[in-house]
Write a structure and sequence with these properties.
The protein is built from three helices and seven strands, in the order βαβββαβαββ. It has one domain: Aminopeptidase. The chain has a seven-stranded mixed β-sheet, sandwiched between helices. The radius of gyration is 15 Å and the shape is globular. By secondary structure, it is α+β, with helices and mostly antiparallel strands.
């Protein structure tokens, strides 16, 4: 198949599919349990009620094989969090993260959220900027297990 003929397919997936991928690739040897959502609120406060949020899970596939995953869920103060972005190394710089962000933004719009936010690592930061996220904090290295991270935010535009 010629490179221009590559067809990536976005699918809704579930936590049972995502969890082992997060465990192996995104958060290996994580000390805290991997849950469908997180209690971290935009800019770092904690709210355990976020653990009851209804998450959405997204996967991008090529020929039936997953190449990238992400999730999103409604948070407080009109926010919607993008969480758990991971794209296989050989598929990076091919627009996979942008597909996953668009799916997350679509669900943020459906939930009437006003902004999309996340906590990217430095290594993934350029893909967030490309999608239109703006950095809203300094880099944080001590507080979170897999840093350094920063907070980013993107105002929702109805698409």
């Amino acid at each position: 198949m010629a490179p221009n003929d590559v067809r990536f397919e976005l699918q809704e997936i579930d936590f049972d599919f995502v969890k082992p991928i997060w465990h192996e690739f995104l958060w290996p040897n994580r000390k805290t349990p991997i849950l469908p959502t997180s209690p971290i609120e935009f800019m770092g406060d904690y709210d355990k009620s976020l653990l009851k949020s209804q998450p959405h899970f997204y996967g991008v596939f090529l020929g039936g094989e997953w190449v990238g995953i992400n999730s999103g869920f409604k948070t407080n103060f009109d926010g919607f969090r993008s969480r758990g972005l991971f794209v296989k190394k050989e598929y990076r710089r091919k627009g996979i993260s942008q597909m996953l962000f668009r799916a997350c933004e679509r669900d943020a719009i459906k939930s009437k959220s006003k902004f999309l936010w996340s906590m990217p690592r430095k290594t993934a930061f350029p893909s967030y900027l490309k999608f239109g996220f703006m950095q809203t904090s300094d880099w944080i290295d001590e507080k979170y297990e897999f840093g350094p991270n920063c907070f980013v935010r993107k105002q929702i535009v109805d698409i």
